[in-house]
Design a protein that fits this description.
Strand content: 25-35%
Helix content: 25-40%
Distance between the termini: 67 Å
Largest sheet: 7 strands, mixed
CATH topology of the largest domain: Molybdenum Cofactor Biosythetic Enzyme, Chain A
Oligomer: single chain
Number of strands: 22
CATH superfamily of the largest domain: MoaB/Mog-like domain
CATH class of the largest domain: Alpha Beta
Number of helices: 17
CATH architecture of the largest domain: 3-Layer(aba) Sandwich
Length: 482
Amino acid sequence: MRFVLNKAVNITNMNAGIIIIGDEILIGQVVDINSSWISREMNKIGFRTETVITVGDDGKSISDAIDRCLDVADVVFMTGGLGPTKDDITKKVICEKFGTELVLNEAVLANVAEMLGRRGIALTENNRGQALVPATATVINNAVGTAPGIMMEVSNISHPEPVEGSSLSHSVPFVSTSSFRQTQCTATGGTDSHPEPVVTERSRSIEGSVSQKLLFSMPGVPFEMRYLMEHEIIPLIKKHYNLKPVFHKTLLLTGIAESILAEKISGWEDSLAKNVRLAYLPAYSSIRLRLSVYEPDDTTEGYIDSKVEELKRIVPENIIAYEDIKLEELVGKLLKDRHCTVATAESCTGGKVASLITSVSGSSEYYKGSVVSYCNEVKADVLGVSRADLEKYGAVSSTVAEQMASGVRRLLKTDYAVATTGIAGPTGGSDEKPVGTVWIAVATPTKVVSRKYVFGKDRAINIERFAASALSMLIVEMEKEC
C-alpha cells in the first residue's frame, strides 16, 4: 500500500554532497567534469554544495565517503562504478552499507538487451549484472545508457526496538523501500517522467524521529549523468522540496588585475550586507564578480541592483557585461545586436581566436572567416602587410598587427577584425621581445588600434591568454563604437 504525500516539503536551505568514483580520476587519466556540473545545476535550484570527494574503486573508500557526505549533506550524488566490469563495485558497496541485496530488475535487463541489440552486441553475463540493483532502491530510467540510476532513501532513526520484520541492526541506517513512485525503464522506453511522492506502509510504521536523506548513484559517463540529472533527478527533487533558488548577480570585468580590483573596491565590498557573498573568479583576461544571496527575499534584487550601480561608479571602464557570460558569447551578442560581422587574422594563436568565436552556436551569422598567417609570406601575400615593415619592425610589432587586422577586414569585407602576432614560446624570444609578448590589433569601421601584452613562458597558457585578450580588446572597442 502507498500513501501519497499531500504536498512537497518546505525547505529554505539544503546542502549537497558529491562523490566522484574512479581510479582513472585519481591518477589523472580522466578529468572530473561531473562535480562542477552537478554543483552548478543544483545551485540553480537552491542547493549549496558542502563537499566534493573523489575516491578510487575501493569499497572502504566509497563507504567512508558516503558517511562523510551524509554527515553534512541532505542529498548525496555519486557518479561512477556502475559499469559491467569487476572494478565497478558501487552497487555492492551500497548493499553492504545499507543491509540490502542485489536483485534482478527485469525492466532494466530488457533495456540493456534492447540497447545492445541495436548495436549488434550479444548480451553477456557482465551486461546482465547491470540489471542487478539494490532491493530497497528506486530505479531511475537511463534512456541513453545501460546502467540505470539508483536512489536510496537514508533515514536516521531514533527507535528503541527494531522494526518488526526487519533484519537491519540498530547500527544500520534504515532505507525505505521507496517514498517516490518507482521509475523503471522498459524496453519500449516508457518512463514515468513525473514521479509522484509517496510514503510506503513500512516507512509509516516507524515511530520516533526520522530525518530522511537521499543518495543518488549515477553512471560516471558525463552525458549519461547529465541526462539522468536533467530528465529524472532534478525534476524529482524539485517536486519533493519547495526550495528557494539562490540569487546570483555576475559582472564581467576586463583590463584590471585581480589584486588591483580588490584594492579599488575594498570599501564597497565591506559595505555589502552580511548575507551577501562576493566571489572573485579570475580567468585569462577577465574577472567575474559574483554576488550571491542564499536566502533571498522580495528586497534582494533591488538591493543588489543598487550595489551594482555603486560599483559602476568605481570601475566604470572595466565592466563589460552584467551577466554570467563567456567572452566569445559576449562578442557574438554585441555583433548580432549591431547586425555586424567580424573576421580574424592570427599568427601566434594559430586559429584559437577563430575557434573560440565559432564555438558559439549561430556564429555563422556574424563570423566570416580567418587567415592564419603563421609565416611572413602569408602576412604579405594574403593580408597585404608591407614587406618593408616586416623587415624594419619585425612580425611582432604594432605596425604589423594593425596591418593584419586591416587586411583581413578588407579581404573578407567585415565590419570588425582582430589580429594577433606574438611569441608563444618557449623558444623565439629576445631581450627586446621576450617569450609571452603579443601585439593585438582591432580594426573597426572608424579606426585601427593596437596594444602590447606581455605574459609568461608557458606556450599553451600563452596561446589561451593571447586569444582571450584578443576577444576582450574586441569587446572594448565595439562598445566604444556604440
